[in-house]
């Protein structure tokens, strides 16, 4: 099947289209329905009648954008009409929801008259929190946007104009820096003079490019004053008319620092690229064929050609999805009256800054495992980089507040956390711990300090101020890798091969001399095994916590800290716990990594450790000890162990959380089963701490929950140790380490 055939099948597959309406409140009972509609709905209606701003409190208006078009300039298809544009508008809604959790109604008006279009859109202001104009031909799009901005008290944004301007503007900020050129000295030539080109030119002026340094060309050549005087230019292009002799694109490109292509493919030659200034910047954004092919532009010269296109198969894709979802998210959340120039600049600057940060492994993998590092081939973030939501959006919101466009003030730190929570429950839960860590950063020794991921993690820990990392490894290797990665930080390094570590040898020998370890062997372990080195470092108080396991099998990584640090004074056993985060629920699963066949004593202690861990995440524990039996329905050695462990816990005066069992997994998790069938159970609500009867069940269980339940797994977290030690899974990503 062709791509076109696949697309038709994709769209027609039941239910047809790409969007649906879903309810956000319970509708299960008669009372629910009476609250949702008549008679209960009258109360919020009357409140809104008294104060229209109450609509943001009682309705979805504050998270609802209208994507509006007349189908007069749809993608590369031209004027195909309102009805035919609907799949595109639905698609735009998908992007709003996918990237910024914004709901969308797509609205297609069969209007050729711009004024009729304006009247129709303006009449919908009570419905929407913002309007995204889409695929409207020039010059009518300028008139329509200006009229609606004047008439409406909600944000109105024509993405075809401003989206390209903002994203390419972010790329330009970084490209100019890489080329070591000042914005105020750049000479910029545009191939194209339509809506996107003129809007982009205006935005570049707001970024600091002198107006007189910008030359626009259309199909008839340079936009000159003589052409303006002859009435050949519309009112939106006329301000860029230059007092130069009439010429063509080839003339305008000569000596230019920047070429911005927003026209048609294949019209720029290698000879034209060679005529540009040193280290030229070329944004060839015509789709699907750029004004000049990426390979041709790069091969045209021997100096650095900084290149961006509109295509995803080349570096530096100028993709509007990096802009509009996050700009609207920020505008909606401060109830902005408009999207002004300050907000657009803030978005561009935030995108440019984000491109300078270390790129998450998940993003690298999504784009083919190629290197993504700030430089000529990485000017702007990738669309699948989740950080765009909580880096760009707060910048837009802040600009709205500072410029007077906002009707609602937001604390930016709280707002950033709210945005992270939109990415999933795991972000919300981890933010609890990150805030605690930032308030009192600890010294964390990273045993595999020469590993690239560990070095990147260390850099992030320092940047976010949540820990003081110590990298174990050869100093030269670590510094070389950090430099190759472009990381701007001064790592703290503990090099076992240099320095005086005899006191570490003494400590290890003292701990293990009656376990068959000689002093010579202790010295060799300290010098050659970073897990032993890091374990001694923590045991002697030179570090507060330890991470390892990235390049080791779990048992071999766990052995040194167990031998040297050991379990806590009040603990006999360690255990591995995973935190699983679902959309509206958090579950702690134990033990999934350490105890192969625990007895009742181990199960009881693991339950207490896991409950304590849950409280560190501000989760009040409700523990269930699992089996295939419910409260004695089956009696054998296997079911007696969790049952006896529960009896121990009930008899323990230090246990101040509800715990019960043995019980089946669905009994523990389904409220109706607990409250109806087993109303005697200690748990009044579903369990959030699940203690499995053995390692096999625990490992299988958490992975099934993770994969089939769509949960994100954080861990394993090692509990019961005398000092904090965590053994990572082999191949974990940087975000997992952090």
How does this structure look, described?
45% of the residues are buried. This protein has five domains: 3-154, Malic enzyme, N-terminal domain (Rossmann fold, 3-Layer(aba) Sandwich); 162-312, Rossmann fold, CATH 3.40.50; 322-422, no CATH class; 437-565, Rossmann fold (3-Layer(aba) Sandwich); 575-720, Isocitrate/Isopropylmalate dehydrogenase-like (Rossmann fold). The two termini are 44 Å apart. The mean pLDDT is 93. Strands 7-6-5-8-9-10 form a six-stranded mixed sheet. Strands 18-17-19-16-15-20 form a six-stranded mixed sheet, with helices on both faces. It has 738 residues and is an alpha/beta fold. The chain is 43% helix and 13% strand.
Index terms:
alpha/beta; six-stranded mixed β-sheet; 21 strands; oxidoreductase activity, acting on the CH-OH group of donors, NAD or NADP as acceptor; Rossmann fold; 738 residues; 5 domains; globular
Number of domains: 5
CATH topology of the largest domain: Rossmann fold
**Backbone structural class:** alpha/beta
Annotation, overall tally of beta strands? 21
> Treating each run of at least 4 consecutive H or I residues as one helix, how many helices?
31
What is the rounded Rg?
Answer: 31 Å
According to CATH, the homologous superfamily of the largest domain is Malic enzyme, N-terminal domain
Largest sheet: 6 strands, mixed
CATH architecture of the largest domain: 3-Layer(aba) Sandwich
* Beta strand %: 5-15%
The chain-level mean pLDDT equals: 93
Q: Which CATH class of the largest domain?
A: Alpha Beta
Q: Main sheet: which strands, in order across?
A: 7-6-5-8-9-10
Note the gap between the termini.
44 Å
């Amino acid at each position: 099947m062709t791509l076109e055939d696949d697309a038709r099948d994709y769209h027609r597959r039941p239910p047809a289209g790409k969007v649906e309406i879903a309810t956000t409140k319970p509708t299960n009972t008669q009372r629910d329905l009476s609250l949702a509609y008549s008679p209960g709905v009258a109360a919020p209606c009357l409140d809104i009648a008294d104060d229209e701003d109450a609509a943001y409190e009682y309705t979805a208006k504050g998270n609802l954008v209208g994507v509006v078009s007349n189908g007069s300039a749809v993608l590369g298809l031209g004027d195909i009409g309102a009805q035919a544009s609907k799949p595109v508008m639905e698609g735009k809604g998908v992007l709003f929801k996918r990237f910024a959790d914004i709901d969308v109604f797509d609205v297609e008006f069969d209007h050729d008259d711009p004024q009729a279009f304006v009247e129709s859109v303006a009449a919908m202001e009570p419905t929407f929190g913002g309007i995204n104009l889409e695929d409207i031909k020039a010059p009518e799009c300028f008139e329509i946007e200006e009229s609606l901005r004047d008439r409406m008290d909600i944000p109105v944004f024509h993405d075809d104009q401003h989206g390209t301007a903002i994203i390419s503007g972010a790329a330009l900020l970084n490209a100019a820096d890489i080329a070591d050129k000042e914005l105020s000295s750049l000479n910029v030539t545009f191939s194209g003079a339509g809506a996107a080109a003129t809007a982009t030119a205006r935005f570049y002026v707001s970024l600091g490019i002198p107006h007189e340094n910008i030359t626009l060309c259309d199909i008839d050549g340079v936009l000159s004053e003589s052409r303006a005087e002859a009435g050949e230019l519309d009112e939106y292009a006329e301000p860029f008319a230059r007092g130069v002799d009439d010429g063509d694109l080839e003339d305008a490109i000569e000596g230019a620092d920047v070429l911005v292509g927003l026209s048609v493919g294949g019209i720029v030659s290698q000879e034209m690229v060679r005529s540009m200034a040193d280290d030229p910047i070329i944004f060839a954004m015509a789709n699907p064929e750029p004004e000049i092919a990426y390979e041709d532009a790069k091969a045209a010269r021997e100096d650095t050609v900084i290149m961006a296109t509109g295509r995803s198969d080349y570096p530096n894709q100028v993709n509007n999805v990096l802009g509009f979802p996050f700009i609207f998210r920020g505008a909606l959340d401060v109830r902005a009256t408009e999207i002004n120039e300050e907000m657009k600049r803030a978005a561009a600057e935030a995108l440019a800054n984000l491109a300078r940060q270390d790129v998450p492994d998940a993003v690298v993998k999504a784009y083919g495992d190629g290197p993504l590092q700030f430089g000529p081939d990485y000017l702007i973030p990738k669309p699948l980089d989740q950080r765009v939501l909580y880096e760009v959006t707060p910048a837009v919101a802040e600009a709205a507040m500072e410029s007077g466009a906002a009707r609602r003030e937001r604390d930016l730190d709280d707002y950033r956390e709210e945005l992270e929570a939109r990415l999933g429950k795991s972000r919300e839960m981890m933010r609890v711990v990150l805030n605690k860590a930032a308030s009192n950063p600890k010294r964390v020794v990273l045993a595999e300090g020469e590993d690239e991921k560990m070095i990147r993690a260390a850099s992030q820990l320092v940047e976010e101020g949540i820990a003081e990392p110590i990298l174990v490894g050869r100093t030269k290797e670590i510094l070389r890798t950090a430099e190759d990665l472009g990381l701007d930080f001064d790592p703290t390094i503990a090099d076992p091969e240099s320095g005086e570590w005899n006191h570490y040898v003494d400590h290890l020998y003292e701990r293990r001399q009656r376990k068959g370890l000689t002093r010579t062997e202790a010295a060799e372990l300290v010098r050659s095994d970073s897990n032993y080195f890091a374990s001694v470092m923590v045991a002697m108080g030179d570090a507060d916590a330890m991470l390892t396991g990235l390049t080791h099998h779990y048992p071999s990584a766990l052995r040194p800290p167990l031998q040297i640090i050991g379990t806590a004074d009040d603990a006999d056993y360690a255990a591995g716990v995973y935190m699983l985060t679902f959309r509206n629920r958090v579950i702690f699963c134990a033990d999934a990594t350490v105890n192969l066949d625990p007895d009742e004593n181990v199960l009881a202690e693991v339950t207490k450790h896991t409950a304590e861990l849950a409280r560190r995440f501000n989760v009040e524990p409700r523990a269930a000890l699992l089996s295939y039996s419910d409260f004695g329905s089956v009696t054998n050695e296997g079911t007696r162990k969790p049952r006896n462990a529960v009896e121990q816990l009930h008899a323990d005066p230090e246990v101040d959380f509800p715990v019960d069992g043995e019980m089946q997994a669905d009994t523990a998790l389904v409220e109706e089963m607990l409250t109806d069938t087993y109303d005697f159970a200690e748990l009044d609500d579903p369990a959030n701490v699940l203690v499995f009867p053995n390692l096999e069940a625990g490992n299988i269980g958490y992975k099934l929950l993770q994969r089939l339940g769509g949960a994100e797994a954080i861990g394993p977290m090692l509990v019961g140790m005398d000092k904090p030690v965590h053994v990572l899974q082999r191949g974990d990503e940087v975000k997992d380490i952090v």
